[in-house]
Amino acid sequence: MSRLLVTGSGGMLGRDLLAVLGSREDLSVTATTRANLDITDAEAVRAAVAGYDVVINAAAWTDVDGAETREQAATAVNGDAVANLAGACAASGARMIHVSTDYVFRGDATEPYPEDAPTSPVNAYGRSKLAGERAMAALLPESGYTVRTAWLYGAHGPNFVATMLRLAGERERLDVVNDQRGQPTWSYRLAERLVALADAALAGHAAPGVYHGTASGETTWYDLARAVFALRGLDPDRIRPTTSDRFPRPAARPSYSVLAHDRWAAAKLQPMADWRSGLAEALAGEAR
Q1: Looking at the domain assignment, is residue 239 inside a domain?
Q2: pLDDT of 142 strictly over 60
Q3: Does some domain include residue 237?
Q4: Is 135 part of any domain?
Q5: How many Cβ atoms from other residues are within 10 Å of residue 36's Cβ?
Q6: What digits encode the pLDDT tens for the residues 13-35?
Q7: Which residues have a catalytic role annotated?
Q8: Residue 112, CB-side half-sphere exposure with 13 Å CA sphere
Q9: pTM of the shown model
């Protein structure tokens, strides 16, 4: 029986990972949260990782705007702690799957970013996540898997879809930006893909390196909001398009966050389905 360690199990993605893994009788799964494992503590991490076959790191600093004034703190979690985990995995022989982000790219492309596209983050959060990617590449070149995701939503944490549904009950009209493009990705589907990648890694037919874990297709925040309203039986014309300059934020946002999925085929895995199907399934599940 393979042993698997999940860090960040209290977050939106972490809780979905535990749900996916809950039916796996062939795996022994240990879940850690910030309360029982400080991943910035190298010695604690080394002790926690010992004896496991795979580590899935879902722990992260996710406050994009907060990272602008606390970049060192963000990098401690998204960069230095990833190096701690990767170093511990290198020492013990474990494989590691680490979740990263589209924010490592500049976000000014006009076609989907391939996995080997040059990185150039435009904000502190992106720089902190890129530090984690570099640690993975340096410390686990033969057994490390970095999975970039984007526009994540799910049942267990704050996210755009949940915000739209909340605001639908508070406001008659909503202005939503229509000049940023990406791939809305249901966290449960990403969790399934991470577990599938762990299986492929253990079976020896998934090459190490970078994978893109986003839904297929692409859309804007405006069209996503309209889709959310329509699926819930609300009038999508209550959503009005606007531009990003109407909502200034401390951290710059990439205008184009669409990722290509070419590397999954070599691991004998399919990319995730179109974002519309994931959204429909996620909302249908919440309604039950």
Answers
A1: no
A2: yes
A3: no
A4: yes
A5: 11
A6: 999 999 999 999 999 999 999 99
A7: 125
A8: 18
A9: 0.97
Q: Which of 92, 89, 81 is nearest to 37 (CA)?
A: 81
- CATH number of the domain bearing residue 11: 3.40.50.720
Amino acid at 93: G
Measured in degrees and rounded to the nearest 5, phi and psi for residue 225 equal: -60, -40
**Number of independent structural domains in the chain:** 1
In 3-state terms, what secondary structure has residue 53?
Answer: coil
CB half-sphere exposure, 58, CA atoms < 13 A: 27
User: Which residue reads 């040059």 in tokens?
Assistant: 118
How many residues are present in the chain? 288
SS3 168: helix
Q: Which range of residues forms the domain containing residue 39?
A: 2-218+248-287
Amino acid at 169: G
154-212 confidence digits (pLDDT tens): 999 999 999 999 999 999 999 999 999 999 999 999 999 999 999 999 999 999 999 99
* Helix or strand run (H / E) with residue 32: none
Does residue 277 fall inside a structural domain? yes
Quick one: CA dihedral 265, 18, 146, 198, positive or negative?
negative
pLDDT digits (tens, 9 = 90+) for 240-257: 999 999 999 999 999 999
3-state DSSP assignment of residue 247: coil
